User: Fold this.
Amino acid sequence: MRADWPELSDLLLDVDPETLARRPVKRAAVNAVLEKHGMRVGRRVVDAIPGADVLDPDAVDGVLLRSHTELQRLSFEFQNGVRLLQLLRPLLNVLRSSETERPLRIVDIGCGLGFVVRWLAAYGELGDDVELLGCDFNPALIRLAQKLTEEEGLRCQFRVTNAFTLERRAHVFLSTGVLHHFRGDDLGRFFQRQAQAGAKALLHCDIKASWAAPLGSWIFHQARMREPLARHDGVLSAVRAHPAAVMVAAARAHGRPLVYSVFDGAWSPLPILRSLNTLVGLDPSLAEPFVSALGKSKARLGALT
Ligand SMILES: C[S@@+](CC[C@H](N)C(=O)[O-])C[C@H]1O[C@@H](n2cnc3c(N)ncnc32)[C@H](O)[C@@H]1O
Assistant:
């Protein structure tokens, strides 16, 4: 596997980011990409999806739903809710002093089944002045996220929409497992759109790039995942994970006026113990109060510049 290989989940769903219309996905077009990169395992996964010239959209939804359901195991085991909460709590306290607008809006970009948003709504105790919104292009994932929210009686919302074209600004953008999907110019645009949208803070949690990440991911996926696409994309995600320096350079080049650093981004001799890291972006006026609100954890955040 190589970092320039595309993930199958990105090839199988094609949604217009402006109109949100789902476009048909031609089998020949997908196969041409897989062939170009020599992705033989990926080809077998796609061959198993029904549909002649066009991949059957219901079958694709089934594969993506099962894969994201399995992906929640990873979010659960790696405590993604707790992980973001330890940064969100101090951040919200700082925002409460600096922002007059209420509610404080937190938007999860590419929320999938919304594990993190639902976890924060269930256990985060973020306060009544906080709004939690998960956004994704995939209607099947959002339908299930919304259904689970209703079943659990949670105070959060999910929407099929482009997270960058919301009618009201997000104070905080966050994501989990999304950053590595954006590469090159798209990564720069990802940060540019959030800064232009007037966000005060960004928290983007993703796999920490290291020699151990692909091996660790392979072991985890063999043990805990059964859906072929989930296994394929899970290991490829670890290969595609951005090194901290790449994330920060793209953010600083395109995402001003915010300042940036990485939480848990420091090199470690045993990277298996720190398998995720979080890119932190902050309005410059929040940097000093946020670092001080982090308390002991501030040692885990690099310099914000
Ligand atoms: C890897 S998946 C999400 C994983 C999910 N965060 C989790 O942890 O389970 C990436 C998702 O990002 C969504 N996405 C990408 N760009 C987006 C945007 N601008 N607005 C909303 N969703 C977006 C895609 O539709 C896709 O479902």
